[in-house]
Structures are given as structure tokens and as C-alpha cells.
Amino acid sequence: MSRTDRLTGRALLAVFCAGVLIPFAALLMAALNPPGTPLSGLSLPEHPTLAAFGRAWSTAGFGRLLANSAMVGLGVVPLALICATLAGYAFATMRFRGREVIFGLLLLGLTLPYEAAVVPLYYDLRSLGLTDTPVSLILALVGLYMPFGAFWMRQQFTALPKELLEAASLDGASSWTVLWKVLVPCVRPALTTLGLLYFLWAWNQFLLTLILIQTPANRTAPAGLAFFVGAHTTDVPMLAAATLIVIGPVVVVYLLFQRNFVAGMVSGAVKG
């Protein structure tokens, strides 16, 4: 790689980095102003304070809302990963009648907007008495995320050397043992990436939360933020503080697992 290419690459990275960090910096500087301070443009606060965070936290009840979001995310991730792993393993290694047709129908879920399934989901879950509970949101999200998860894991298992399966079969290993003791350890980075994506998607879910959960105290943080914005449209410091409170856990989770996330994405790109 020439010096010009390296400089161009670094310049592009700097531009992308600035595009990500500047909005966060603007939010932080706005949130450090006292609540009710009129703001115009990007400027440093004259008297930085955390009062906006405290007032936004207590006014919106973000403690309960963040706990609800964490409950949904931690419920969706393991259940969705298990379902995606089992489906991907079946489509990648097993031969059964109608396999390609079933997989093709499953992939149709990637092309259909999930908004089209909101109304049927609501009535189905209401008939089971599950609406207005975190269980309804968890089950709905697991089902909606299955097409992508099954496709992702099928590609990971298909890319592995077939000699692994043959060697395990010669040793007398069962299908269950082959999956969990041989294949899953090989695709652990991809599983971590998929789990992180599931958590981010579940945390940021908005429409399903509004429809399936009507009690304000049972809503998730993004839904609570939407109602908070509607009630404090002119208080920019409080709005900025509330936004940072909601996106903070997502940023922390990503920073903790960023190496695994990148490893899984690179692994999938190379194998694909």
C-alpha cells in the first residue's frame, strides 16, 4: 500500500470518526447545561452541571425503564441465539424433504417489514393473555429476528470444513454432541456478534413496545424517552440528558464486546 493510500485511508477514518463523535459531544455539552437553559448552536456550557441528568432520571423514571429494557434484551438474546443456532445447524448439515423450500420461506422474513406483522402479533398475544408484559415483547422479537439469525448461522456452519463432521461421526458422536462440542466453539465469534446485534435491536425496539405494552411503567427506555420528549419539547438540556441515559448502556455494551463484534464480522466476511 502506497503512502498516498495510507493517508487517504486515515483521512476517511478521521472523517467517519468525527461524524460519530461530534453528535455525542453536542449532546453531552447540551446536557451539562442547567435544566431549562435556552440553547442555540454548539457551545461549551458556562457553568457545567449534572442537574439535567438527575431531573430527567427522576421525572421519567428511567431506573424502571432501563430495567425493563435490560430484562427484554437479556431475555431475547439467549433464546434467539439458541433458536438461530439450532435452525442454522439443521439447514447447514441435515438433509430432509423440503429443506430448500422451508429455508426460502424463512428468508422471506428478511424482505417483509416487521410492521406488517404488528397487528396479527398483537391479537395473537392478546388471546394468550400476554400483552402488557415483557414476555410478549420477548417472544415477538425472537420470532422476528429468526430469519436473519437462521441465515447467519447457516452460513457460518456451511463455511466450516466438512472434515470436522466426518471426524466426529467416525468417533461416534451424536448430532447434539457435534453441534455443541465441535461446531459451536468454532463459530463463537459469529455467535458473539449475533448476540450483540440481537441486544442492540431489542434495546432500540420502539414500535412493538408501544403496541404490545400499554402500561407506562412497563415500557422500555426508548418508548419512555419518546413520551419524555413529547412532554419536554423545549427543555433541550433535559432532552439531551435523557437521550444520553438511554443510549449509554448500548454504548457500554458495544465497547465491552467491540473486539468480538469485529472478529465475528470479519470472520463472516472471509468465510462468505
UniProtKB/TrEMBL annotation:
ABC transmembrane type-1 domain: residues covered: 66-257
Keyword NADP tagged: no
Membrane topology designation: Multi-pass membrane protein
Entry keyword annotation includes Transmembrane helix: yes
Keywords per UniProt: Cell membrane, Membrane, Transmembrane, Transmembrane helix, Transport
CDD domains, A to Z: TM_PBP2
Gene3D superfamilies on file: MetI-like (1.10.3720.10)
One Gene Ontology CC term in the entry: plasma membrane
Listed PROSITE patterns: ABC_TM1
Subcellular location: Cell membrane
A biological-process GO annotation: transmembrane transport
Domain of life, source organism: Bacteria
Ranges annotated as spanning the membrane: 12-32, 65-89, 101-123, 135-153, 196-217, 237-257
Pfam families according to UniProt: BPD_transp_1
Membership in a protein family: Belongs to the binding-protein-dependent transport system permease family.
Protein name: Sugar ABC transporter permease
